[in-house]
Amino acid sequence: MKEHTFVEEGSLREKRRLTTNLPWIMKQTWNDILFAHYPVPRKILRELVPKGLTLDTFYQTGWISIVPYLTSSMHLRGVPPVPGMANFAGFNVRTYVTLNGKPGIYFFGLTAANYLAAHFAKTFFRLPYFYMNMNHKKAKDLIVFESEKKSGMQLLCNYKSSSTPSLADRGSLEEWLVERYCLYTVSKKGMPLRADILHEPWLLEKAEAEFHQNTLLSNLNIVPDSEKPVLHYAKKAVVRIWPIVPVSE
């Protein structure tokens, strides 16, 4: 497949359009989210992303993002949140792909500090989910995120907001990075799969962060073009998630 180079595509409504008639199956809230975006040579990412997915780049530059956050109020459709399973810390490592004109996210790895949640997502969404002990807590205006070291992965960082919230500018790198409303993966046979994700447009804030330990990129043998990430913070997003389905032509 041809590699996609960024051009401003359609309206936000187009980017958020649903690609299935099925109802959503899960709802959750993401809280105190840090986006740490690193530019990465597209050649490196192309070797890591499955061939059935088209790598997305912003003016020929690839990007990979590390995103720690706290999940709360997670529940299946028609079922109230289950005590002990609804709230947990996690992070994901992701890059950006597109298929049939719909930009989305491809995950290299996701973690949850809840075994049942990680097992459910790994089984039903066919995602590389891992259970890991983590803490996500507030210390005055600072968010303290701490994970154990597991399978070569560890993330220890502090972060905070440093501005008021606003929508990303149309056509900006920020909009390109965060305004994506689906995830992609592939089946064991290489068939592209997609799950729609719907929430309000991101209200982003500038962020400051200090990384005490971060092995998430080196664990993937990725050396970014810059060790200094583009940082954003978001207070909250209420998210609905649809079933994962094969991508039709």
Automatic annotation (TrEMBL):
SUPFAM superfamilies: Acetoacetate decarboxylase-like. It comes from the Bacteria. Transmembrane segments: none annotated. Pfam families: DUF2071. Signal peptide: none annotated. This is DUF2071 domain-containing protein. The lineage of its organism: Bacteria, Bacillati, Bacillota, Bacilli, Bacillales.
